[in-house]
Amino acid sequence: MTTDAPHSPVDQTQADDAEQDGHPGRTPRTPRPGRRRFRGRIAVGALAAVVGGFILLDPARYFTFNANLGRLSPAGHPLYFPVLLVHVLGGTVAVSLVVLQIWPWLRRRHPRVHRYVGRVYVAVAWPAGLAAIVMALYWPFNPVSSVSDTTHAVLWLAATTYGFALARRRRFADHRRWMLRSFALCTSIIINRIVTVPMEMLTTWLASHLTTAAPTFPTIQPIHTGSQAWLLDVSAIDSWLCWTLALIAMEWWLDHDRRRRPAPGEIPQPTPATLAR
What we know:
By secondary structure, the protein is mostly helical. The protein has nine helices and no strands. The longest helix has 42 residues, at 172-213. It is globular, with a radius of gyration of 24 Å. The N and C termini lie close together (6 Å).
């Protein structure tokens, strides 16, 4: 039987997906809106709890403005701690605000608050990112970590600035993608704190086995855990691993989201064959 009532693009997309999966005519199950919102609230709440715990355990100690907390002595490097403080305070505000920025309820119900919070996020990201670049280049902990920190900060500022520019042009779909990349780069410092302990345990285990194998293989040099060289190696691995893992995971999610929810221009239009039912 033929009808003139066209199918919606969503129905057509689901039918195409079902045919691609090898089950023509079967509509894939999609989460109910209420269930999706519930999962979203749990995810945002869990993220807020993780960010809050991170701030209390790490950046909060700098709020005492004690210059001795810095890696370098204030007597020999008087400008180091002020630059570090700009980075820590700006990064703390940024990582706190980015949780609000990805909150769907706030974006839907209070778009003006979403815009204001986004502007503050961009405003604090720039001094925090520039301070990270200055510290990485002027007071490098080691060359490998310096390159990682500089690359990380440049990518974060680029993604944030471009996402803000897209919002000004009202290209909100592209703005969302780039701000999610900025979110991944901003919160990757939390991954660094989580990965540090297991990374130290893994490198200690490898060092002990390599040291045991050193007499058998003369080319292997004994590794002394806790030495300056060992700490530099662990720091370099952590520095690169945290933000690259976060960015790769976000790119995977964005690709999955794009396939699940194609842009309006990418939604296939109904064909005469699909109108005959």
